[in-house]
Prior knowledge:
Elements: H1 2-14, H2 16-19, H3 22-35, H4 37-46, H5 49-61, H6 69-79, H7 86-96, H8 98-105, E1 114-116, H9 119-127, E2 129-132, E3 135-138, H10 142-161, E4 168-170, H11 173-186
Parallel strand pairs: 1-4
Antiparallel strand pairs: 2-3
Helix pairs in contact: 3-4, 4-6, 5-7, 6-7
Amino acid sequence: STVIVTHISEIIKKYAEELLTRQDVQALLDRVKKDYPAVVDDALKVASIGLIQRVLKSLLHEKIPIKDMITILETIADIAEYTKNIDTIVEHVRSALSRVITKLYESEDGTIKLITFDSPTEQFLLSKLKQQGEQKQFMLTVAEMNKLVEEVNNAVAELVNRGIAPVILIVDPLIRKPLAEILERFG
């Protein structure tokens, strides 16, 4: 029974974003509202259940726990007053959850092993970033995209071979989402 419970738990974690319905979000909000009615009311003044659901699904997609609903809702309340752009709201929520996210990758001795791009590479990527509707995308040639993915994969493979895992890539917040999408698709 322990093996089955563990397996089901892993399946739920893997597909959490697909399983989260508006009714589930409403139930979460109802639970939070019992102890923090002002937080929920403020969030619902500027954000619909659907918008909150999309933010939560984005966080779950990135394997970010949504346990700290107070911080998530307070951030949504602060940002959704000015924009309904999901990517912008999620970036602000991620920033507010930075300690939670950091804890996910912290080793037992409290260190975090990460890689970054050199400054010219990051500047190049920033220069190739363009707004397409509500999303930011890189305007890269196929060759540039292939080179980017190949170099990131090679750097990650080298670290994994040295026993360093997980590998965390830290980048400018402006390029994080479009880069994550490319690496998820092609990496």
